[in-house]
């Protein structure tokens, strides 16, 4: 079968399965199966596809029709300026989270030590390190598989010598202080997790989604630790869900933190909030 015919049939199949960007995803899946850039597919539409490659494409198509995320099928995703490996151990990086990176870079011009709590793929930490050549970073994740994935992504993007990744429960085991703390914690209300789109509810780790009854459990733990984790003049930037910027700001101020700024995602939704520590929190023990 030719590339053109495969794409035509695959687009129809994906549309029937409820995939919004059916034509685009058909091209991405076929390019992955063939191991070529997707631009080549239009140029070579009349080219015959080898049986083995066609079988791999049909299997990828079957998985996508079952609503498995495209990124998990191809095994990678783009974020900021990075090319990242993804797996079922972590959330798939989303453009919304780039608001955290933008705000962190705007408020922290020369961090020496960066901490990423719940690092997942390492997307936040590695994006900041890529922009701040003098910085060193530490990524923590409760899931050992996620910490290992972030470590591979650091090497993949030439940043392996400037960061470490460990398995740990937020900042509980840390004693040092950091100039910049980043986090995209779980923030979906427990009752809402099952109602998320199938790609998320079925295939992404529940522990990275479920933020407790009100979605704020992880923020309570992180914000309570920030006064001891932030170095003098340090900044913390956290991703928040829809409608959570105000509640998270209140929680932070209740811990003695100073709210600095917020940042919206590309859809105009408040997506990141930043704090600094004051008073006793700024003194070195």
TrEMBL record:
Q: Which SUPFAM superfamilies match?
A: S-adenosyl-L-methionine-dependent methyltransferases
Pfam families per record: MTS (PF05175), PrmC_N (PF17827)
Q: Domain of life of the organism in this record?
A: Bacteria
Any GO MF annotation of the entry: peptide chain release factor N(5)-glutamine methyltransferase activity
PROSITE patterns on file: N6_MTASE
What the record says about family reads:
Belongs to the protein N5-glutamine methyltransferase family. PrmC subfamily.
Q: What does this protein do?
A: Methylates the class 1 translation termination release factors RF1/PrfA and RF2/PrfB on the glutamine residue of the universally conserved GGQ motif.
Q: What is this protein called?
A: Release factor glutamine methyltransferase
The organism that produces this protein has a lineage beginning with: Bacteria, Pseudomonadati, Pseudomonadota, Alphaproteobacteria, Acetobacterales
Per UniProt, what is the name of the gene that codes for the protein in this document? Answer: prmC
């Amino acid at each position: 079968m030719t590339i053109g015919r495969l794409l035509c049939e695959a687009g129809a199949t994906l549309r029937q399965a409820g995939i919004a960007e059916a034509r685009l995803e058909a091209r991405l899946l076929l390019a992955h199966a063939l191991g070529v850039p997707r631009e080549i597919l239009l140029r070579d539409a009349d080219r015959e596809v080898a049986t083995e490659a066609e079988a791999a494409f049909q299997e990828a198509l079957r998985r996508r029709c079952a609503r498995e995320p495209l990124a998990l099928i191809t095994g990678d995703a783009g974020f900021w300026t990075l090319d990242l490996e993804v797996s079922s151990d972590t959330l798939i990086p989303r453009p919304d989270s780039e608001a955290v990176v933008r705000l962190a870079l705007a408020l922290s011009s020369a961090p020496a030590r960066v901490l990423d709590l719940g690092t997942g793929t390492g997307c936040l930490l590695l994006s900041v390190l890529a922009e701040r050549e003098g910085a060193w970073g530490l990524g923590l994740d409760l899931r050992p598989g996620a910490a290992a994935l972030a470590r591979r992504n650091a090497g993949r993007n030439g940043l392996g010598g400037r960061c470490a990744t460990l398995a740990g429960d937020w900042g509980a085991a840390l004693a040092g202080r950091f100039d910049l703390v980043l986090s995209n914690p779980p923030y979906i209300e427990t009752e809402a997790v099952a109602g998320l789109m199938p790609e998320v509810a079925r295939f992404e780790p529940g522990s990275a989604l479920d933020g407790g009854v009100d979605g704020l459990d992880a923020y309570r733990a992180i914000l309570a630790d920030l006064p001891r984790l932030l170095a003098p003049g340090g900044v913390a930037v956290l991703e928040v869900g829809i409608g959570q910027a105000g509640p998270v700001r209140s929680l932070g101020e209740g811990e003695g933190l100073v709210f600095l700024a917020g940042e919206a995602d590309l859809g105009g939704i408040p997506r990141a909030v930043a704090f600094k520590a004051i008073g006793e929190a700024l003194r070195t023990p």
